[in-house]
Amino acid sequence: MAKTPLEREYDKELQRINRFIKSAEKRGFRFGEYTPPKRPKTVTQKSVERLRKTTPKTLYAKASYYDPVTQTRMTGSEGVKARRGQARTPKTRVTAPRQPGIPFEYQTVLDNIEEMLTGAHTSATWSKSYAELKRKDRNILSHILTGAINELGRDTVVRNCARQAALVKDLAFHICYGSSDFKWETIEGDIAAITAIIYGRNLTVDESKQVQDIIDQVQGYENPE
Q: Would you call 64 helix, strand, or coil by DSSP?
C-alpha cells in the first residue's frame, strides 16, 4: 500500500533525527534519555510537526558527553560548548604550503588532522599509561597518513579527505583523544575507516595486512579494559 504524503514526511523527519543521533554518537555524545517516538497508527500533521520541532538543540539537551581531553562526563549542551572551545584553540604548528589548484577548504581538512597528530597534548587528568596509549594511537595514524601521501601524493589525499571532511575530523579526533570510555576495538575500527577514506577506496587484502602490520609494530601495549 502506497504511503500518504504525511507518512512520507513523517518518515523523512524520523530518518533525519536518527541520522543526527548516529553522527553525534560518533563524536562522543550519548542519548540514553532520549527515545525516538513510536510511529502512530495514523500519521497526522500534528505528529509530523512534533518531529520537526525535535532540533539538534533539543537532542543535545537530552544527551550526555564524555570529554576525551579532560576525561569528564557532562551534559550534551556542555559538550557542544566544550568541542567548540577546543576547535577554537589557537594552533602554533606551521601547516604545509598551500597547493595551487586545490581549494583552501579542501586543504584545511588534512591540515586539521596533522595538527591533531603533531599538536596533541596530554591532559593533566590522564594517567601515564593512558597518555602513552594515546601517543601510540597517534603514531599509528601518522604512519598510515605518511604512507598514503608518499604513495598517492598529497593532492590526492587532500581531496580524498575533503570528500568526507566532517567524518574524517571526528575519526581523527577520536583516535588522538578517544577516551577510556571506549574499547580498543572501537579505535581500531576508526583507524580502518579513516584509512579507507584517506586512500579513497576500500583497501585490498594486502593493504589491510600492511595496516595491521603498522598497528602491530606500534601497539606494544595491552588492550584497554
A: strand
